[in-house]
Amino acid sequence: MKAHYKISMLALAFVLPFVLGWIAPNDWWATHHLAFLPSPHNFLLFGIALGLILLGFIIKPKLNYPSRFSLNHWVVSLAISALFCLFCYSFPIASDSYGNARTFTPYLNQMVESLPEGFWGDLLNFKVEPGNGRWGVFHLFTLAAYAFNCSYEKVFLWVDAICGSLFVLVWLRLVVAHISIPIWQLALSLAGIASPFFLIFFGHIETYAPLYLILLGYFVFLVRAIETKKQIFMLPMAILLLLGMRFHALSYLIAPSFFLTLLTLGWQHNKTIKKLLTFKGLVLWLYIPACLVGLVLYFFILKDYNDPRFLDGDVPDIERLFLPIIAPEAPLDNYNLQSWNHIFDFLNAILHWSPGLLFIFVSALTLYRKKLSMSPTLSILLVTLILLISFLFMFNPLMSMPMDWDLFVFPTPLFMVLTLVIVKQIQHETLPTSLLTSISSLGILAIPLFAVNAKTLSLSYRQESVGVHVYKTYYAHSASLMLNALNMIPADVDLYLKRKEKLLQKLKPMAQVGVDRKYAELLTDDAIVKWKVLNQLDEAKTDFQKALYYSPDYYDNWYYLAQLNLEMGNSKTAHQNALQLLNTFGLKENPDVLRLLIKCALENDSFIEAEKYCENYLLISNSSDINLVKKILERLQANENVEELKVQLLP
User: Fold this and answer.
1) What span, in angstroms and rounded, lies between the C-alpha atoms of 51 and 60?
2) pLDDT in tens, 472-526
């Protein structure tokens, strides 16, 4: 088969996930954005994308491109970079709940009038522990908010836009510096800028924007150092590596590349070092030992191979660092290290890197494999990438991989530079025109991702679909994802309940009686809306009872059911509900239950029990209700008009 036909056929294979995402959006979460664009926009974009690929079958295999066409001029790069900065700032994620956005969102409207105590020590803290890196970047944002007297929201928006702009500028200049053939310059530039991972720079309330710029800079200097054989480039590499390690623990996995580069420069004529710096040598003496260390950590230190795979307030992130091999109990048993659900999610995450560059990478290996030489640069970059991929494959996505995509695109800057190094070797080979039309097609298919995330309604339906996928696979956090999706749109109770009912019906065949907390959460939320908003008390009670059927030990459901029974005049039933809570969850951590029991006891004229509950409440609570409870207790102890206490119930 001719080369340009091979390229076009490969492009159709790359488009297939986007078609499947359109048809089955609840499964193909990385490529399903066409499904959430209104018609005819989705048909128009897909038609253009498909037309570009089909064009590759019929146009001449080679075209004579104008020799004057080039991205060499700084003005062109600066203009594209500035335009990207404007887009990033103008079209941020409409309602950000990805990754750690939920952690940082409460800070958005805050101003920083003074730096907190111990600020500089916290900023320079290099502890290797989950969360330390992101808080390190957040400390920088705090410094910026203080220096410019602005809110955190402005800092996030500007940092994202500026880092995104600089990332584009560095990428364009890198392409120009290493690629002399204009059409390859255009192909790499387009494939790079049309990457889904760039969503990080569109107002994402996260700390990855500066980190990924640092990573790109590091690998740019790595290539520069090896190719020029100048040790002066090791200095910026060292600085960027230290920054990377401070701002994300995964950066420690790229540290070996620094020392390998140093070996390349200092002992480039040593036969042993030359043998080490081959791909085979690096796999044997770097990758395999690293894997052995990882396996010891996995099986004997953290013992994550048999984890229950849940997090609560008493379990630190480090205790659930990797996915288990042995399946936990249902309903968490569908997502393990060797499960298809995890493998499929990981492949989806890789599609979030850059379909265009992945296409170039595969095309180069398909057409020009025999032309490629495994240079020290290529060997170091490739083994570092494999090391990162191996670690991330074992890593436990704490919110689910569709919501933690911003972590799993960590290798993208490295992959971009690796692809460029490969193209540099083959740029003078015959280039089928279909390669450019195919890359343009994949660029068109990247538009829906940014468009959906920029519009609240589209994003709401997209996240609802993600929630369904997570429920079927990773399970944890799925209910909160779906509820957050429903709450994105303006208050419309009828639409809210209609969407919720469709969700409940869709998930019901998969719901597991007695252990399904997430399905119970959806039912409990349904009951609260019917009770608090629509005043449909009987319907609400039915939903609370359904939730108990799926999760008998769900605290919130018992608590609200007791409150509803109390409001409906069923004080004895409410008392039983509250006692069930107390027996299940204990006394010390449940002052709210004691407060509820006080209400129930007073309603039932059980004054001795009410007195006991008041005493226990005062022992464990420090809320604003203490003074009122003290007064109630004094009245009970003095037996002073205790019947009137019913009208003085706690709020």
Assistant:
1) 15
2) 999 999 999 999 999 998 778 888 999 999 999 999 999 999 999 999 999 999 9
Phi, psi angles (nearest 5°) of residue 40: -95, 10
Q: Provide the 10 A C-beta neighbour count for residue 620.
A: 12
Cα–Cα distances in angstroms (integers) from residue 61 to residues 5, 6, 64, 185, 187, in the given order: 9, 11, 10, 19, 16
Helix (H) or strand (E) holding 576: helix 571-585
477/438 Cα distance (integer angstroms)? 37
Q: Are the CB atoms for 278 and 250 separated by under 8 Å?
A: no
- Single-letter code of the amino acid located at 5: Y
Residue with tokens 């008390």: 537
Q: Which residue reads 């590499």 in tokens?
A: 237
Whose tokens are 């359904």? That residue is 546
User: 3-class DSSP state for residue 78?
Assistant: helix
pLDDT at 589: 59
- The closest alpha carbon to 565, from 533, 529, 527, 606, belongs to 527
CB 601 within 8 A of CB 589: no
| Residue 144: Cβ within 10 Å count | 17
Whether 159 and 200 have beta carbons less than 8 Å apart is answered as no
Within 10 Å of residue 597's Cβ, how many Cβ atoms? 27
Name the pLDDT band for 283 (thresholds 50, 70, 90). very high
Q: Is 433 helix (H, G, I), strand (E, B) or coil?
A: helix
User: Going by C-beta distance under 8 Å and a sequence separation of 6 or more, which residues neighbour residue 105?
Assistant: 96, 205
Residue labelled with tokens 């569109």: 202
**Residue 198 to residues 34, 193, 405, Cα–Cα distance (Å):** 18, 7, 11
Per-residue pLDDT tens over the stretch 206-248: 999 999 999 999 999 999 999 999 999 999 999 999 999 999 9
Q: Which of 490, 502, 552, 498 lies closest to 524, judged by CA?
A: 552
Distant-in-sequence, close-in-space partners of 510: CB < 8 Å, separation ≥ 6: 471, 472
Q: Is the dihedral of CA 118, 122, 127, 130 positive or negative?
A: positive
- Indicate the pTM of the whole model: 0.93
Contact (Cβ atoms closer than 8 angstroms) between residue 637 and residue 614: no
